[in-house]
Amino acid sequence: MSPRKVVAYELLSLDGVAEAPDSFFVDWDDAMGANLAAVIATQDAVILGRRSYDEWVRFWPGSRIEPFASFINSVRKYVATSDPLDPEWANATAIDVGGLVDFVRDLKNQPGGDIGVHASILVAQALLKAGVVDELKLVVAPTIAGAGRKLLDGLPPIRLALTRSATSPRGYLLLDYLVIGAGD
């Protein structure tokens, strides 16, 4: 049995902003949809931060935006938080935020598919810092956000290997990286 992979999938502006991507992802196209479908097809668990959980639990249970709605509503969700999950969402479990890295390391050694990290900037950063992320899949909008939290701020040097790059018809970059390890 090979260990599961942790795959961080993030939507970014050209200047690296990951916060509030709905403000700069305005022209979703079929190539981006196919890319997302391929990413989630291998995942059977998702790690979320509390902020993403609180935003998503109000939107996705009633959404018909496919393929993500069916996926996120049925997949096992682990939420890094120190508070109970309220409101509740199907297949969501709170995990202690202080034990996030150890929890994900343990989860990687259990049988199953890939473990996704979607949105959740602080969770993605913590897992990247700890060397737990195996793949980084980015969709970069042809927009400069100008302000907002950036995914890669505060990280140590990390070596990546580009495994795929494509451009969607509307100019979004689809970039897949293998995380090699700590940089020099």
Plain-language structure description:
The protein has 184 residues and is an alpha/beta fold. It has one domain: Dihydrofolate Reductase, subunit A (3-Layer(aba) Sandwich). The chain is 26% helix and 30% strand. It is built from 5 helices and 8 strands, in the order E-H-E-H-H-E-E-H-E-H-E-E-E. Strands 4-3-2-5-1-6-8-7 form an 8-stranded mixed sheet, with helices on both faces. The radius of gyration is 16 Å and the shape is globular. The termini are far apart.
Short descriptors:
alpha/beta, 30% strand, eight-stranded mixed sheet, 5 helices, Dihydrofolate Reductase, subunit A
Molecular shape: globular
Number of domains: 1
Percentage of residues in strands? 25-35%
CATH topology: the name is Dihydrofolate Reductase, subunit A
Number of strands: 8
Q: Please trace the helix and strand order, writing H or E for each element.
A: EHEHHEEHEHEEE
What value does the average pLDDT take? 95
Assign a percent range to the helix content: 25-40%
What is the distance, rounded to the nearest whole angstrom, between the alpha carbons of the first and last residues?
32 Å
- CATH architecture annotation: 3-Layer(aba) Sandwich
CATH class value: Alpha Beta
Rg (CA only): 16 Å
Report strand order across the widest sheet.
Answer: 4-3-2-5-1-6-8-7
Q: Can you identify the CATH superfamily? A: Dihydrofolate Reductase, subunit A
The major beta sheet can be summarized as: 8 strands, mixed
Structural class: alpha/beta
Please tally the helical runs, counting DSSP H or I stretches of 4 or more residues: 5
Low-confidence stretches: none
